[in-house]
């Protein structure tokens, strides 16, 4: 399956079915992130229920601490 993630075309395994699985595949599941799927910002509680499909546009914003 091909997804556009943060502006880059990325192929992910067909076993990735949800946003939560995508974050795990990208090794971002333990980070604080905001995910936008096809211009809709998702609540964290919806990551496990939101499906991803071939051609979806995903934006993932991560937070970095500093001081």
TrEMBL record:
<dbReference type="InterPro" id="IPR010035">
    <property type="entry name" value="Thi_S"/>
</dbReference>
<dbReference type="InterPro" id="IPR012675">
    <property type="entry name" value="Beta-grasp_dom_sf"/>
</dbReference>
<dbReference type="InterPro" id="IPR003749">
    <property type="entry name" value="ThiS/MoaD-like"/>
</dbReference>
<protein>
    <submittedName>
        <fullName>Thiamine biosynthesis protein ThiS</fullName>
    </submittedName>
</protein>
<dbReference type="Pfam" id="PF02597">
    <property type="entry name" value="ThiS"/>
</dbReference>
<dbReference type="InterPro" id="IPR016155">
    <property type="entry name" value="Mopterin_synth/thiamin_S_b"/>
</dbReference>
